[in-house]
Amino acid sequence: MSDVTIYTKVGCPYCAAAKKHYTDQGITFDEIDVHNTPGAKEKVSELSDGKNIVPIIVDNGKVAVGFGGG
User: Fold this and answer.
1) Does the N-terminal or the C-terminal CB of the chain have fewer CB atoms within 10 Å?
2) What is the C-alpha separation between 61 and 58, in angstroms, rounded?
3) Domain 4-65 CATH class label
4) pLDDT tens sequence across 25-51
């Protein structure tokens, strides 16, 4: 298990950018597709104070909502 988890959905350009960023940095991550993983939508809502937005990035326990870097 990695120290980074990225909650994603298919077709999300911000999710793709986040995954590329971590991959380019050589940082491994666990990806959780919110549409195909039971309980993932609820977890995203919990982590983001009720927002239904992806990506949600959990990096060493720190939660980031969305991704604008790259």
Assistant:
1) N
2) 6
3) alpha beta
4) 999 999 999 999 999 999 999 999 998
